[in-house]
Amino acid sequence: MKRWLQWFRRSPARSLTASMAARLAQLPAPRDSTAALTERFVVLDVEATGLNTRKDLILAIGAVALQDGGIVLADRFHCVLKREHEVTDSVLIHGLGPDAVAQGVSVEEGLLSFLEFIQDSPLLAFHAPYDEQLLTRELRNAFDYRWQHRCIDVAELAPLLTGAPLKESTLDDWLTYFNIPLLERHHAWGDAYATAKMVLQLFRLAQQQGIHTSADLYQKLAQFKQQTSPSFSF
Predict the structure, then answer these.
(1) Which among 91, 39, 79 is positioned nearest to 192, based on CA atoms?
(2) How confident is the model at residue 170 (pLDDT cuts 50, 70, 90)?
(3) CA-based, 20 to 30 A from 172: which of 98, 144, 162, 202?
């Protein structure tokens, strides 16, 4: 199994079927910086074999859409990817052992279906760089596809909008802060749904502070990170 994993991680992008190539060609360009907060946003979560974004593998993707100040439960996505992986503690916590993954979809189909789900919508995730780096590598390996979406990091957005001293806190800490029940943690769709409930409250705070578009959020986040970054004098 380890030999197979090494092959997968080093292999070049796989050849596309004509059907997959056509589906990729139909994907719209991301609309990251022009969306009002009332338009469609997608909150996502990725579960993987570990925390190393250079070598660990995506096992499941969950996502849910927000629009007009609410969660659109009919507009959601979840898939488990069918692949071999070592069973470690970090895998078992997601409930994604070999039996569960054996019932999943192919890596290519799962990733492509996810791209078709998000379309051009702006994205959010808790600790977004982790999800982005995994998706960037997996999409390159599967399709030689360049990930173009920007993903707003909810872990940075929350302290910006609330002023709460929880800058380095976990998702569990923030859900407790917002009094959001912990229903199904460490499950891709469950975590995406919990994060989405948190984002709704953050968007309300944003609008109260005169922030009405994704462009406004990016600008405020850039200023916030600049203000809170440690300064060095020589």
Answers:
(1) 79
(2) very high
(3) 98
Instruction: Give which of 207, 203, 201, 144 is closest to 175, Cα–Cα.
Output: 201
* Contact assessment for residue 66 and residue 199, using Cβ atoms and an 8 Å cutoff: yes
CATH number for position 138:
3.30.420.10
Strand partners for 48: 58
pLDDT digits (tens, 9 = 90+) for 19-67: 999 999 999 999 877 899 999 999 999 999 888 999 999 999 999 999 9
DSSP-assigned beta bridge partners for residue 77 = 63
Residue 119 to residue 65: CA distance in whole angstroms: 11
Which residues is 67 bridged to in the sheet? Answer: 70
**Residue 20 domain flag:** no
Residue 90 token pair = 């970090």
pLDDT at 209: 96
Q: Determine, yes or no, domain membership for 4.
A: no
State how many domains the chain has.
Answer: 1
pTM assigned to the model: 0.86
DSSP the chain: -HHHHHHHHHPPPPPPPHHHHHHHHTPPPP-TTS-BTTS-EEEEEEEESSS-TTT--EEEEEEEEEETTEEEEEEEEEEEB-------HHHHTTT--HHHHHTSB-HHHHHHHHHHHHTT--EEETTHHHHHHHHHHHHHHHH-------EEEHHHHHHHHH--S-TT--HHHHHHHTT----STTSHHHHHHHHHHHHHHHHHHHHHTT--BHHHHHHHHHHHHHHHSPP---
Q: For residue 176, what are the domain limits?
A: 29-224
